[in-house]
Amino acid sequence: SVICIVVTAILAACNFVTAPIIKKQEEAANSAAYGDILPGATNLVEVSGTFPATVTKMMKDEGGAGYVFEAVATGYTKTPINILVSVDANGKIIKFDITSDPYPESKGNAADFEALYTGKDLPPADTIAGCTVSSNAFKAVLNDIFTVFCEYAGVEKSDEQKLADLYSAIM
């Protein structure tokens, strides 16, 4: 039993010493990984909170470049579509990136959606003709991202946006 106590103490000490180092390395890796999607980001840190089911992760740049969201949409095949979305401090979509496209040859593929949403203000209103299910899924995800963005960035939704939310909830 003495051996167990000694080993436990050594492991606890190792954890105490290495935890801050590991955290810094993870933050640096996140900043590097998301550098393409949020240009100018200096230090991305994960924001913890309760998000809609479609929003799986939120990162905030401590330098003020904006936010990165990881999200999941479900298209017409019901296969999850992973999305990375970066948003500046004013709510403009800097980049919309589909990281997994289960149907790349279909009408309205990833490049079409990326071009459609990149550079737009949240929440977007555009869709791609003939891609109703995917368009609606992406719009729903972007609306969820907009809701989270407003909550965490301290941005107030307009009355029109609040009515749209109410309409979506009722329908």
User: How many E-type strands?
Assistant: 5
Structural class: alpha+beta
Percent of residues in beta strands?
Answer: 15-25%
Whole-number mean pLDDT:
77
Shape: elongated
What is the number of helices? 4
Radius of gyration, whole Å: 20 Å
Strand order of the largest sheet: 1-2-3-4-5
Uncertain spans, ≥5 residues at pLDDT below 50? none
H/E element sequence = HEEEEEHHH
Share of residues in helices: 40-55%
Folded structure, characterized:
By secondary structure, this protein is an alpha+beta fold. Helix content is 43%, strand content 19%. It is built from four helices and five strands; from the N terminus they run αβββββααα. A hairpin with an 8-residue loop joins strand 1 (44-46) and strand 2 (55-61).
List the defining traits of the structure above.
171 residues, alpha+beta, five-stranded antiparallel sheet, 4 helices, 5 strands, 43% helix, 19% strand
